Amino acid sequence: MPQSLHSLDDHIQEILEARRRTQSGPFQPVAPGTERVADVLANACASVAEAFVDCGFKWSKSGLHFSRKAGLFRHVISFQADSANSSGAHVGVSIHVQAKSADLAKWRETNGVTTGDNLWITQIGYLPPTHEYLKWQLVDATTRAAEVRSMISTVRERALPALAVCSNKESLAAQLLDRPEMTWIPDWAVDIALWVGNTGAADVLLRRQSPDRTCCPISKSIGAWKLRRHRHLGLPIDFIAWLGQREGMACLFQVRHSRVITWAHNGKPHTCLFSFRPCDVPPSQVR
Fold first, then answer.
1. Fewest beta carbons less than 10 Å away: which of 137, 145, 210, 221?
2. Overall pTM > 0.90
3. In this predicted structure, what is the pLDDT of residue 229?
4. ∠ Cα 205 198 213 (to 5°)
5. Can you spell out the DSSP letters for the chain?
6. Quick one: angle between helices 186-195 and 218-229, nearest 10?
């Protein structure tokens, strides 16, 4: 059975215990006959992947993951070796699940709040129904088969249902707001909602993040959202203005003090903090 970590204290205690078991292991000769970490991981993880060949997954030994293509989507289940691993003492492994789309990445190039092909990526324990960090211990050869069966069962129960949502745009549009692995990064979720044509979901996500925003067309709301999110990137003020114009917003920018900008949307002023020097782009250059 996997070790379940629920709190920061759980993680600290797990790290301390792993260090205790491996304190004499690093940089020491490995006793003859001792199973090496790399071999244990490769064999166990390959056994997990083999159980999902019928589901269309293919194993990648070099990448320590297995993946499949599903329409516009790519599903990836990967293994992460514990940093404290030591041959004969500790062989910990966790599982991560990811949904990607090259088509989404292309759409984001001209329409997105963010960039890249990720829909979502998370530790398998954070998928419904519970929220817990799961880790398996493979060092003991006598219990390893049971640990492998546990990993297979967890992938079937948690990863496959989440990935099934990302099998086509229709399914994704219908279930987006019900999937916490997709909505916990709001920027990504807004992109996904617009990409699949669910402007209603995009509006819900915007209201969650900006409950005080005035009612206005979704295109204007998305424009305002992008301007808020880009404040963290230290972008030049002329690019911020250009982005506003591209979104069809009546934007007015003014440099205040050293790093503060005010802008207007639908007559309502907003203030944002930017990480650039006012002299970098004189206000006269803003169009």
1. 145
2. no
3. 53
4. 35
5. --EEE-SHHHHHHHHHHHHHHHTT-TTSPPPTTPPPHHHHHHHHHHHHHHTTGGGT-EEETTTTEEEEEETTEEEEEEEEE-TT-BTTTB-EEEEEEEEE-HHHHHHHHHH-SS-SSEEEEEEGGGSTT---EEEEE---TTTHHHHHHHHHHHIIIIIHHHHHHTTSHHHHHHHGGG-HHHHSSHHHHHHHHHHTT-HHHHHHHHHHH-TTPPP--HHHHHHHHHHHHGGGGT--HHHHHHHHHHTT-----EEETTTEEEEEETTEEEEEE-SS-GGGS-GGG--
6. 150
pLDDT in tens, 221-241: 555 555 555 544 444 444 445
| 84-124 per-position pLDDT tens digit | 888 888 899 999 999 999 999 999 888 877 889 999 999 99
Give pLDDT, residue 185: 84
> What is the pairing mode between strands 58-60 and 268-273?
unpaired
**Is the Cβ–Cβ distance between 208 and 180 less than 8 Å?**
no
- Tokens 């629920």 correspond to 6
Domain residue extents for the chain: 3-170, 212-287
* Cα–Cα distance list, 114 to 105, 106, 186 (Å): 9, 11, 10
Beta bridge partners of 5: 133
Closest CA to 167 of 92, 72, 50: 72
Name residues of the chain where pLDDT drops below 50. 212-220, 231-240, 242-243, 247-287
Q: What is the pLDDT of residue 4?
A: 77
